[in-house]
Fold:
Amino acid sequence: EAGVTQSPTHLIKTRGQQATLRCSPISGHTSVYWYQQALGLGLQFLLWYDEGEERNRGNFPPRFSGRQFPNYSSELNVNALELEDSALYLCASSLASNMGTDTQYFGPGTRLTVL
Amino acid sequence: KNQVEQSPQSLIILEGKNCTLQCNYTVSPFSNLRWYKQDTGRGPVSLTIMTFSENTKSNGRYTATLDADTKQSSLHITASQLSDSASYICVATASGGSYIPTFGRGTSLIVHP
Structure:
């Protein structure tokens, strides 16, 4: 069974541009989570989608947004990129939306570099 | 403010030895605590999940404990292997109607032959 996949693996953008990151969950999983892991910092929760709806978001500005498609894949958009947005962006999926108590399976991440 | 503190920041042990990693959290209202293993350049892998009513959970050579009164958790690794070299991340999740995780910065474990 295929795991969580993310694309692209690496993304290089310049300040002010927009970035779009994509995630495909494990088949049968309806919840998708996005996290940011900046160098030297811990993981930070960005967004949680379930059944196409945004369930919760972390402490990030509105220029971080996303959506979940009918096939449960998800997209993270980052507008007006800033240098400090450079990080590894991780996507995870879980079987159900049991208030975050389900096991989450992570993808390999997308490394975003903002120049 | 929700916080998770992990110690030590890094740890070097010899193959075959045991070790214990610590996690202190201040998350309210508390829902669950997870331990993840993250190899360099890869996404985290779930090791254990414990709710407030559980005080121990095992996954092979990994055993996590939880003391909800003192808000402390530990991850014990038995008979370490070279493949255990990784970052171990503690995550405390608050409840209150939604999913609010707080991540520790991790403990970097290096296992030497």
